Amino acid sequence: MWLFVFFDLPVVTKKERKIAATFRKNLMKDGFVMLQFSVYIRHCASKESQAVHIKRVKSIVPETGMVSILSVTDKQYGDIVNFWGKEKSKKVPTDPLQLEFF
């Protein structure tokens, strides 16, 4: 599963910019990576993991602005088509490698 976090936070005042920056930093601490400005993604290996990360995002949502979370399967995410201007292609995030413990 892939989690997408979309957000539109106010950034007019210095305090609002600090709150928005803190929100982004907390997303990255939780393993999200920026796909576009205000769009962050994270791979989750299971529904249980997904629920944990949704709960974490919910706990850091600022008082103002809008935050949305979308969950898609690996298959759905694999069908994404990206364009970057005139460049031929860029690497999109793939499933993370699974760690093995012995």
UniProtKB/TrEMBL annotation:
Tell me yes or no: is DNA repair among this UniProt entry's keywords: no
| Swiss-Prot/TrEMBL keywords | Antiviral defense, Endonuclease, Hydrolase, Magnesium, Metal-binding, Nuclease
Top-level division of the source organism's lineage: Bacteria
Sites where the protein binds Mg(2+): 8
Q: Which cofactor does it need?
A: Mg(2+)
Task: List the EC numbers from the record.
Answer: 3.1.-.-
Q: What class of enzyme is it?
A: hydrolase
Which molecular function GO terms apply here? hydrolase activity; metal ion binding; RNA endonuclease activity
UniProt-listed GO biological process terms: defense response to virus; maintenance of CRISPR repeat elements
Instruction: Note the Pfam families from the entry.
Output: CRISPR_Cas2
What InterPro entries does this protein map onto? CRISPR_associated_Cas2 (IPR021127), Virulence_VapD/CRISPR_Cas2 (IPR019199)
NCBIfam families from the entry? cas2
Q: Describe its function.
A: CRISPR (clustered regularly interspaced short palindromic repeat), is an adaptive immune system that provides protection against mobile genetic elements (viruses, transposable elements and conjugative plasmids). CRISPR clusters contain sequences complementary to antecedent mobile elements and target invading nucleic acids. CRISPR clusters are transcribed and processed into CRISPR RNA (crRNA). Functions as a ssRNA-specific endoribonuclease. Involved in the integration of spacer DNA into the CRISPR cassette.
Q: Which family does it belong to?
A: Belongs to the CRISPR-associated endoribonuclease Cas2 protein family.
How does the annotation summarize its subunit structure? Homodimer, forms a heterotetramer with a Cas1 homodimer.
Q: What name appears for this protein in its UniProt entry?
A: CRISPR-associated endoribonuclease Cas2
Quote the gene name from the UniProt entry.
cas2
